[in-house]
Each structure stands twice: as structure tokens, then as C-alpha cells.
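Q: What would this chain look like folded?
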Amino acid sequence: MTKHRNVYRDRRDFLRLAGSGLALAALAPSMAAAQTPAGGPLKIAMIGSGREGSALGTLFVKAGHPVMFSSRNPERLKDLAAGLGPLAQAGTVEQAVAFGDIVALVVPYTAIEEIGKAHASALAAKVLVLDVSNPIPRRDGEDFVKRVNDQGGAGVMTAKLVPGAHIVRGFNAIGSGQLAGLAHRAGDPVGVPIAGDDAKAIATAEALIREIGFEPVLVGGLAMGKHLVPGTPLGGVHTPAEIRKIAGTLR
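A: My prediction, written as C-alpha cells:
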């Protein structure tokens, strides 16, 4: 699989190209490749359908994509799916992994290891695994979060836990209650910082993010995923220009 680092030698070169307007042209071939073979909607599996997973999955449904919401208790998701119409359904995690062209991980970060052990080979076959999960000290424990950070942070750690998957981190630091109101904002769109190493997965994520009314901003490879958590400078609501400015100060 072509890696994004082969497109840009390092993050500094990418930011320079982005500033000159050349980055989009360089990514154009991979953006075209992001379409399904038939050119139709992508089936999206939401692994984890709490507040964030439900809000994000709802936006995907409204953009015309079939979505399966999943959790350990899928019967609790039936009302959510019924309320969104025929494009939405509920299922187990196993059913959702089998269903999706794209899989979104929206679970407590401690659950990713178990998901990787159970489904790594299936997830590696997906064009995109969207990592929306965050290691949070008050929920996951200080020791666990330290272990994640010692391994390179969220993003790098997810790639280790789900080997072979084409991972892009995104939507990690915009609250679930804000998503619907911020989507398709008039004037300056809300930016969504993303981090990834795989060009095709990045292009797919970018297309999806634009479809649901936000503007993706690539801040670097998965090593930059450590900055896409609440409480960091990239957390919260920013314009694309603000994200690029902030990202330029981070290492």
C-alpha cells in the first residue's frame, strides 16, 4: 500500500506545499481513488455508538451513506437506527465489521486492543479505519494513558493495536453535542484536523469529512495523532486556517 510519507518526505515539506496550494494537486490522484468501484455510497460501520458515535453516524446517514451502528448491546440501538430511516441499521461489532467498507472506532481507547485482536485481519482489508477514540485519564487511568504516550501517542498506538489497518485519526476533539450544529456552517467551514500515513485512506477520510459539512486539514502522519485529543491546542472548534497555523507549531 502506498504510504503518505512517500508522497511527502516529511511534515515540513507538506506544510510548505499546502501553503503554496500544491498539496491538493499532489493528492488529486489518490482522491479520485477514494471512490468505491461502482462510484456509489460507502457502507460505514460505527464501532461504538454512544454520543459521539451516534452523532457522527447520523451525519454519515444524512450524507447518503448506509451506516450500521454497533455495540455490545445492539438492541439498545434499534430506536436510533429506526429514527434515521432505511440507510441505518443496528448490529453487533462482528456484524458491523463485516458490513463496512469503512470502519469508525468510537470506543473507549482501552477497547481498541480487544477489537484489534478479534478483527485485525478484517480491518486491514478496509479502505479506511477512522480512529475517533481518545485515551482519557479520568476514564482509562493515568497509567494506561502514560503507556499510550510512551508508545508514541494515540494514532501510533492504534496502528500497533490494529496491525495492517489503514488508519486516519479525525473528529477526536469536537464534542458530540456540537457536530450537528457545526456541520455545513455558512461562511468559513469548521476544520477537522486529521493525521494518517496512507494516502488512499487520507483521501477517503477527506471526502467523507467534506460530505458531512466540514473541512479536513491534514496535520501530518500518525505520529501527529497524539495532538488530536481534547485539551490540546488542536482541540475544540477552529477554522482550517487556524488549524494550519497551530499545526505548524507542533512536533
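The two ends are 26 Å apart (CA to CA).
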